[in-house]
Write a structure and sequence with these properties.
Layout: H1 4-15, H2 19-35, H3 39-57, H4 67-70, E1 74-77, H5 90-104, H6 106-111, E2 119-124, H7 130-141, E3 145-148, H8 150-156, H9 161-174, E4 178-181, H10 185-188, H11 197-213, E5 219-224, H12 232-235, E6 240-244, H13 249-259, H14 270-277, H15 282-298, H16 306-319
Parallel strand pairs: 2-5, 2-6, 3-4, 4-5
Antiparallel strand pairs: 1-3
Helix pairs in contact: 1-2, 2-3, 9-11, 13-14, 13-15, 14-16, 15-16
Bound molecules: adenosine-5'-triphosphate and magnesium ion.
């Protein structure tokens, strides 16, 4: 049976929409039950976790009207994060606040023929929160998040890509939501050209035209960690460009504390823990915190010390393959 701490962790991970942690704790409960001889119950719980994970993966755009042709290009879900849960630099936070404010006041702006900010370009190293931001905006505005799988779009439908893009932009026009063009450089650079540079150029040009003409109530978010591959003509088509820096010491501390909130961290020397994480991305720090938390849960000792975080950070650093990103 689940311990009180596990129940608490389940509720907290559910409340913060942290699926990974939620399922990890559920599987720990199953493992414990199995050890105690409740085999059937443990198996039923594991099956339930598998089915729920499968269901999450299958959330597609069935309700978008033109959906059939968009399957495989666009996947949708409804994120539920809150801005308060994010660990953001003050610069990024204030830009996102501005976007949210203009979106919420969009009727008032439109009465004066003013357009709210709705075309965003997010730039930054891997793991610094670009994709996460799209979820955050969708959650705050209570809009569905539709992710356009650009890499798949181009490689699978080479030749038809412009027609597919038209369809995506028609959907953007018809159905208000947050539309994320992730790994956006796939459209703009040589990286994914696969030999046919002319084709990619044409796709990029149609994208620019669609973007230019677009004036819907949707939010278009393009993200890349290879800005150097993007054509400069692209930048001026966006209402706002947001740069994502690596986390500052304050942001690192906020990230660690919020991810370890279910544990007892009163003995942690935060300055040391933060130092051990300097230079790493948000994503890496989340992994360090989650590794620390899992070790504590598995050892059934929910008090975390500085050493545990330092060890996890050291471990993580030694396993990171350096990314080829250059500023
Ligand atoms: N500001 C933040 N606050 C809390 N957690 C964050 C924040 N930014 C990122 N994370 C965590 O880090 C993980 C990685 O972030 P994300 O996937 O958004 O990075 P990315 O910038 O899109 O990276 P990539 O360029 O590799 O796609 C997220 O799943 C989230 O758990
Ligand atoms: Mg991303």
């Amino acid at each position: 049976m689940a311990t009180a701490e596990q129940v608490k962790a389940l509720i907290e991970s559910h409340a913060s929409n942290d699926e990974t942690r939620f399922y990890a704790v559920a599987l720990q409960v199953a493992a414990k039950a199995a050890r105690q001889g409740h085999r059937q119950w443990a198996q039923a719980l594991r099956d339930l976790v598998d089915r729920s994970r499968q269901h999450q993966k299958q959330l597609h755009v069935a309700n978008l009207g033109t959906s059939n042709e968009l399957v495989g290009i666009l996947t949708s879900h409804q994120p539920t994060y809150r801005l308060e849960q994010a660990s953001l630099s003050s610069e990024v936070a204030s830009r996102l606040d501005r976007v949210l404010m203009e979106q919420r006041e969009r009727q008032r702006l439109r009465e004066y023929s003013l357009q709210p900010i709705h075309k965003l370009l997010l730039l930054g190293k891997p793991g610094t929160g670009k994709t996460f931001t799209a979820s955050l905006l969708a959650a705050e505005l209570k809009l569905p998040l539709h992710v356009i799988q650009l890499d798949g779009l181009i490689t699978k439908y080479l030749g038809e890509t412009a027609a597919k893009l038209r369809l995506v932009f028609e959907t953007i026009q018809q159905s208000r939501g947050v539309y994320l063009f992730d790994e956006f450089d796939a459209l703009g650079g040589e990286r994914s050209a696969g030999g046919d540079v002319g084709e990619i150029r044409r796709v990029l040009n149609s994208f620019l035209q669609f973007l230019e003409m677009e004036s819907s109530d949707s939010l278009i978010v393009a993200a890349t960690n290879h800005p150097q591959l993007l054509d400069h003509a692209l930048f001026r088509r966006f209402d706002m460009v947001i740069q994502y820096p690596l986390p500052s010491p304050q942001v690192i501390k906020h990230l660690l504390r919020s991810r370890l909130a279910v544990l007892n961290t009163e003995h942690v020397e935060w300055n040391q823990a933060v130092k051990a994480c300097e230079g790493l991305s948000h994503g890496e720090i989340v992994r360090i915190a989650d590794w620390t938390a899992k070790n504590a849960v598995l050892k059934e000792d929910l008090t975390v010390g500085t050493d545990a975080i330092l060890m996890a950070a050291k471990d993580r650093r030694s396993s990171i393959l350096r990314d080829a990103f250059n500023d």
